[in-house]
Amino acid sequence: MSANRIAAKSENELLKKGIYELQLNKIPETGFAIQIGSFQNVTSLWKEIGRLHNAWFKKILIKTAEIEEGTISYKLMIGPFPTKEKASSYKENLNLKFGISGFIVSLNQE
Q: For residue 100, which phi and psi values (nearest 5 degrees)?
C-alpha cells in the first residue's frame, strides 16, 4: 500500500493523547468499497486505522475472514459506496490527494 503522506507521521502521532470513542457497527453486505490493506497483525491494523483517522477519514471498514483455522485476515477498506462508479471516482481522488492506492471490492455477500 502506498500511503506516503499519511505514513509520514510518526508512530507517536497515530492517536494523539486523549480519549476516543470507537463504534463498531455491522453494516449490510451490499455496495462497494476500496480495499487499501490486508492484515493478519492486529497492531498493524490499528496503526493504519489511526493514520486514516488522523487524516480525517470517516468511513473506515474492516472485513474479517478466517483464512485458515485460527488465523484471521483483516481487510481494511474505505466505503461503502452504492455503485462501482462512485467507488471508482473516490479511488482516483484517494490516490491523487493522499497517495493511497487500492482496488474496488464488492461488499455483496459471497
A: -100, 125
DSSP string, 69-108: TTEEEEEEEEEEESSHHHHHHHHHHHHHHH----EEEE-S
Which three cell numbers, joined as nine digits, stand for 13?
502521532
| The three cell numbers locating residue 14 | 497515530
What's the pTM value of the predicted model, to 2 decimals?
A: 0.78
**Residues 6, 55 contacting (CB under 8 angstroms):** yes
Distance, CA of 33 to CA of 31 (rounded, Å): 7
Element (H, E) at 46: helix 42-54
Q: Where does residue 54 fall: left (phi above 0), alpha (psi -120 to 50 degrees), or beta otherwise?
A: alpha
Of 26, 31, 35, residue with least CA distance to 81: 31
- pLDDT for 35-69, tens place per residue? 999 999 999 999 999 889 888 888 999 999 888 88
Cα angle for residues 62, 66, 71 (degrees, 5° grid): 105
